Amino acid sequence: MLYALSISNYALIHVLDVQFSGGLTIITGETGAGKSIILGALSLVLGQRADAGVLRDSSVNAVVEAGFRIPKASPDIEHLFSENEVDYSDDLIIRRIISPGGKSRSFVNDQPVPLNFLRSLGNILIDIHSQHGNLLLSDSDYPVRVADAFAGLGPLSEQYSAKFREVISLSGRVRTTRTAYEQTRKDLEYLSYQYQELQAAKLSAGEQDELEKELNLLRYAEEIRQSLSEVLNILDEGQLPVLVQLKEASRLTSAIASRNPDFSEVGDRMEQVRTELRDIAQECARMFTGIQDDPERMLQVSRRLDTIYSLQRKHNVMTVSDLLDIAQSVGKQLDDAVTDSSRLEALEKELAEATAQRDRLAARLHKERTGCLSELSGQLRSRLALLGIPHARIEFSISEKPLYGPLGNTHLEILFSANKDVPPRELSRIASGGEMSRLMLCIKSVIARHSGLSTIIFDEVDMGVSGKIADCMGNMIHELSDCMQVLAITHLPQVAAKGNAHFLVKKEMVREVTETRLLPLQGEDRVRELARMLSGSSITPAAVQNAKDLLNYTS
């Protein structure tokens, strides 16, 4: 329900604040007073586009703010908020700001939202019905929505919508998974060859350095052995081995130290040098023994390194560790291919089950829709008769489409004739604007209790109607207010008299500036406004009395 509307710096409005109640609220005013301006401002918070041309003062922002109270849980609204990650509350403050540059910002409970979100929310919160609203009858989905509302199929329709969205989501996941799997499968043979080649190499981290070192020793084994032999001759095996001479020198220094204690440090150092050289000689001997000239082993090492170098060139890397990483990555891709195959199979099964459930729900919807059409047609004919079309004929052409949409696979078309001797045909080809408007009002009155709407606005839908029919139209509009909030902009006193609340749109000069204002009417003020509507600018006593009669007013 719309409970508050605040407008500032918009067209002829400087500042306007109004509180609305439930039931039927009437808005009247002379032509040009600004009723369309107020409706235009409200349309801004419902997501309509705007530009800087609406600003009253081109240097200041225009701001429109509307307060809505959601009377009961609405799956459509909650789904919309959840889908767009907007915080939900059953008390919504929607604000739209238009800057002098023409840019706009939108907020719901102070949270910024995109314009398309505002538009979707507006379509759920308010139905603005004007002469242009009859275009809904040309929308192929609208008759289906009417049948669903009339038959109370909201819960079943919501089940179908949820399953339809699930099928769409699963179809996308299946496509993505299948694409990835098919791409991997194309590369599967090559990946498998790569993996087997890398696994067959039996690589180990650090082996390349060890092999290169070993190959270097094998390649220069004879030269190294020759050098080691010469070192050993010098130190321990020649005619005058250094170690033998150092042993004698050490003995002599020890003898000197026994006679001269100051020389004992030299003796110790001499012994240390001899010990170190003896260790060196022993290490050289071990190396000499360990290094062998082994052509067969050198060939094995060379071949192993050739294998490693070949793999490195092939994969454009420099180390064995890189090759091991590649082997791990290729192995994962092969595992993923198996996993993708299993995942694809599971998703396809899930999609098939969801699709079957969707089809069953659509079939139930189609059956229920078909079953309600006869009663719906009868109620519409009865109401059209009250509105001056006594011989109206309404039929429905219903069939199942091959493709499924958000509402199912039902194709439903309204066929209409205002004359009993003319067979029903497509609305757009046979119905006049007035007939379309009355039919639309009848449809909305029939489905009001089940439509889920909390507010409906009628914008001069009673044009061209008078007398008894106007009174019937007023009763029908008032009847709608029993189950939703109704705002009616009208020129008919018969309709205006039905309201629970009445506002007058008035254009006034304020400090030599034209300004549109919205004034609440009660008592004598309301009587005078109805009298004006009855008689024009010159209000007669008869018009005043007629207005009192319409309002059942007693002073």
Q: What's the alpha carbon Rg, rounded to whole Å?
A: 47 Å
**Helix/strand class:** alpha/beta
Number of helices: 17
The general outline is elongated
Mean pLDDT: 85
Strand fraction band?
Answer: 15-25%
The CATH class of the domain at 1-130 and 460-521 is identified as Alpha Beta
Could you describe the largest sheet, including whether it forms a barrel? 6 strands, antiparallel
Give the proportion of residues in helices: 55-70%
- Order of strands across the main sheet: 2-1-4-5-6-7
Outline the fold blueprint:
Layout: E1 2-10, E2 13-19, E3 24-28, H1 35-45, E4 62-69, H2 75-83, E5 91-98, E6 104-108, E7 111-112, H3 115-125, E8 126-129, H4 142-150, H5 154-201, H6 207-219, H7 221-237, H8 242-259, H9 264-290, H10 295-315, H11 320-386, E9 393-405, E10 408-417, E11 425-426, H12 427-430, H13 433-447, E12 455-459, H14 467-480, E13 485-489, H15 493-496, E14 501-510, E15 513-521, H16 523-535, H17 541-551
Parallel strand pairs: 3-13, 3-14, 8-12, 12-13
Antiparallel strand pairs: 1-2, 1-4, 4-5, 5-6, 6-7, 9-10, 10-11, 14-15
